[in-house]
Structure formats: C-alpha cells, structure tokens
Amino acid sequence: MFSAPGHPETIWSDVSGTVKQSRQIKWAGGTAAAHKIGSVAGAAKIITRSVALQFSWNGGFVEADAESGKHVFSYRNRPRYGLVLPPGSEVEFRIKEKSNYRFLSIELEPEYILRNCELQHLSAMDIIETWGYNHPLSWQLAHLLYEECEREGRQGLLYLETAVMFLSLHLVRHLSTYTGTSNLSRRGGLPPNVCKRACDYMIARLQDDLSLTDVASLCGFSAGHFSFAFRQSMGMSPHAWLRCQRIERAKALLRDHTFSFSTIALAVGFANQSSFGVAFKKETGLSPSTWRRSLR
C-alpha cells in the first residue's frame, strides 16, 4: 500500500490499521494496486520514483492532510479524493482517521507514458503535481482498473493496458508541461498486412494473457497508435476483437461435451470459469451452459 511500511517509496512510516483485501497487477512499465481498508491511522513520508496516481473512494470517516513542499492539503469526509504526483515528489501524509474506504494506487514509469503517447523524442516533459484530482474520465478509468485488480485481472492485460493507455494520454494532454497536440486518434487504420499480422498473432495465442504493448511492438507502433489504428481498421478495440475470437473458439470447444467449462476457459485465455462465463454472456446473451444445452 502506498505510504505504508515496506513500500519501496516509503522513507518512514508509522501507519497502522486493518486491510481487508489487497490485489496488485504488474505489467511492463507500471503497476496498479487496489486495497479495501477497514481503518487506518498514522503518518508517513514518501518520495516517488515514478508518476504516481492515487484514487480513494470513501465510505466512512476521513480526517487527514498531506504536506508537499510548502503546501498542506486537507481532506475531510470527501466521498472521493484523487491526486497525481510526478517522480521525485516528497510528501508527508498525516492520517488522524480513515475508515471503510477503497484505494487505488497506480505507478507509471515516465518512459512508459512517453512511449504510449509517441513522445519518446522529448528531452523532457513534466507531469504536474495535482491534488483534489476530479476529472470524470480519469475516475471512470480508475474504477475499471480497481475492478481489474480486485478480480485479479479477469479481463486480461490487453484490457488493463488499454485503460492505462487512455489514462496516460489524459495525463499528457491535461496534467503535463507538454504543449503540443496528439494526433493519435485522427490517424487512419493499419495497413492490411500489418492488421493481418496483429490478428494472426493474437489468434495463435488465444490461451495467453496478451499484452497490448507486445502486440503493438510487433506491428512497429506505440500502444496508443496501435489501439486507435486497430479500431479504425476493425471497428472495435483490440481487446473487444480478441474477446470475440476467444468466444468463437470457445463455441467450437463447447460442442465437445467431454470438455469442462473450466478447461475451455483456460484454453481460450480466461483466468477462470467465472470470467469466461461473464465474457461469454456479454457476447452471446447466454451462459456457456445454456448455449451448450441449446445445441441438443
């Protein structure tokens, strides 16, 4: 947990409390960790090594403040609170009392953000320290990422990295010193041979937890460019397209009644039978068991 004892960015901490649940997902360039907190109190000082984002949904009592530089930021009983810290930020958190809240911590390497947004050529770009961060799109993405962590990556890395890619673009556009414009969303689709290469690569690895960064790199694009171009070519996001292919493969396997649902789930790249069932029903309107019975 960010600012807790043992975290690599914690200088010192006497924070203590009850943590009901913690889940973390890592990928090349970042981490996201979701926590359910019963209660917590204490103080801690941290220095960030990467771009750090924190989102807190509060369902209980909150009385806390944080000191960054010469500024003190207080938050008391707000239903939610967000902040963005650039690398090298020194912050002291002082928590008198916090109870019954959910907390998402995202840490992104600056180079990862630049690659996502095709800004590797920049010699410098700073993320702006922001407290009381309340942009609706970012909170929507934070909610999706919290659920993915909580469910231990139910929808896979391709889904998670797509959400992080949009979050990276938002940071660059609205909370950075970059003054240029991004034309990723206005570019055309993928060349047919490149699109086929990406599709063939994903179909050959339906059972794997595919990374958006890896598929994009195969095609010679950034994750951001690839995502927008793929949608232009195929009419849907890479994640949605991959889910369709997995469900089509699952339908073929469901015709063989010797395969259990859990076996089929793993064979087509879902973490477990539950995540497979949710995705199958989203695509077909039926559960796998109902669909199988309809074949009789």
From TrEMBL:
InterPro entries per record: AraC_XylS_family_regulators, Homeodomain-like_sf, HTH_AraC, HTH_AraC-typ_CS
HTH araC/xylS-type domain boundaries: 196-294
UniProt keyword Endoplasmic reticulum, yes or no: no
Any Pfam family hit: HTH_18
Superkingdom of this protein's organism: Bacteria
Keywords annotated in UniProt: DNA-binding, Transcription, Transcription regulation
Keyword field contains Cell cycle: no
Protein name as catalogued: HTH-type transcriptional activator RhaR
